[in-house]
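task queued by scheduler; priority normal; single chain, no ligands, no partner chains; default sampling; output format set to structure tokens
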Amino acid sequence: MCFVAAGFHGRMRTYSIVSLVASAVTGMVAFAAAPGPNLVLGIGERISTGAFLLWVAVLAVALWKRPAAERTSQV
């Protein structure tokens, strides 16, 4: 997520940073709830994983929609 945030501009950079923060915060919440089995642990893990998977899907769409000329000029 950090490399994509550094490599892209505009909305994808902002979305990557927001997803990274959301995934990290909910991961920390799940880690803090880890000593015992409780509802917060499962919800935190699912939100953290879901934020990452949604980010991967958005990245795939962003890369898919990039014009071919823009892709070849960066190589």
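post-processing summary
- The chain has a mean pLDDT of 83.
- The chain has one domain: 2-73.
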